[in-house]
Write a structure and sequence with these properties.
With about 350 residues, the chain is an alpha/beta fold. The chain contains twelve helices and five strands.
Length: about 350
């Protein structure tokens, strides 16, 4: 039995032993099981040590002590030679290359390149989400109210700073919750397969809808757009803006408003946020959280920039008109973004 050659352990000292093979992975990772099975067939009668990443100590051992390079796939194979020197291989391709005798150092630079690509793609996704119609409609509503009711520019600046910070924290915490929830479910092999294809289907649908919205904008029928903030939510948000901004403690009002509006907006922005977070889960926990932080940083940059423009006496109407004139381009960019993530989700 192949299982006779697998030893589940948490002992860090084993990794210092010469001629040792160890795998780091989630126990219920279906892809990882397939790779380990291939490994045992290629290197028969070899004992391998299995460090379950469900155990936080094993995760800390891998991510903080052993592997300070960037990698993007599990399992990770840890190998020591006769002198006790070690190498690590991440994911199916690198491990299969090792088994085929192609034991090179190309794997780590490739992983780094992939992670750099992820950084760029995720950051651009955040920027785009920050200027989508759902988000921008709220920004214009808020700025219009502030411009009419705040007598000092400093009040707009203070309100903007606290509002932006609150939006960032709220979205990050929501994303963190989604990330952890999906990550736990991905420990089950069947869910991994199902979720991958559900996510791909969802991204394909979003790409088609974004293209449909772009066509409606070109035809001058923006009221027919699908990915927009529903009228009922616009009304609710407008009421919250009026009630909260009457409070003379501007920073408290801005924090409460930022929190409430962020949650209400999720009914619309979540259509973008959920699939992107679903893709982030495919990375290691540390890298996934870094991407989540980067996404939300990109998300608030347009918001902060618009507040800055109003502070510099550019009217919210001019900003709204500028955005409206470029709405077709925004929708097309969203379509291309969803197609991009659709492709890399299927091939990764």
């Amino acid at each position: 039995e192949e299982s006779d050659f697998i030893r589940y352990t948490t002992d860090e000292n084993i990794l210092k032993t010469p001629d040792t093979f160890a795998f780091f992975s989630y126990r219920n990772c279906g892809t990882c099981k397939k790779i380990i099975k291939t490994f045992l067939k290629s290197v028969p009668n070899t004992t391998i040590y299995f460090y379950e990443l469900e155990n936080p100590d094993n995760g800390k051992l891998l991510f903080e002590k052993l592997y300070d390079e960037t990698f993007s796939q599990l399992p990770v194979l840890y190998k020591t030679d006769s002198n006790g020197n070690h190498k690590l291989y991440s994911g199916e391709n690198e491990i299969i290359d090792f088994l085929s005798g192609n034991d090179s150092d190309k794997a780590i630079p490739q992983a780094k390149g992939k992670f750099r690509m992820n950084i760029i793609a995720i950051f651009i996704s955040g920027l785009l989400d920050g200027i989508n119609p759902c988000t921008f409609t709220v920004i214009i509503l808020l700025l219009s109210y502030m411009t009419l009711n705040f007598r000092k520019k400093s009040e707009i600046l203070i309100a903007g700073i606290f509002y932006v910070i609150t939006v960032f924290i709220t979205y990050f915490l929501v994303g963190l919750g989604l990330f952890e929830f999906i990550k736990r479910l991905e420990q089950f092999a069947l869910f991994q397969i199902i979720f991958k294809y559900i996510l791909s289907a969802f991204l394909a649908v979003l790409a088609i809808i974004s293209l449909f919205d772009a066509v409606q904008c070109i035809k001058g029928k923006r009221e027919n757009m699908v990915l927009k903030l529903p009228a009922v939510l616009q009304k609710t948000i407008r009421e919250n803006i009026r009630s909260e901004m009457k409070n003379y403690r501007i920073f408290i009002s801005s924090v409460l408003l930022g929190f409430l509006v962020s949650l209400l907006e999720l009914a619309c922005t979540g259509q973008v946020y959920l699939p992107i977070v679903g893709y982030m889960v495919r990375s290691t926990p540390l890298k996934g959280l870094s991407l989540l932080f980067l996404y939300n940083l990109g998300f608030i940059i347009p918001l902060a920039f618009v507040f800055f423009l109003v502070y510099k006496n550019i009217s919210s109407k001019k900003i709204g008109d500028f955005f409206s004139s470029h709405l077709v381009a925004v929708k097309i960019l969203f379509c291309l973004l969803f197609v991009f993530f659709f492709i890399i989700n299927l091939i990764s």
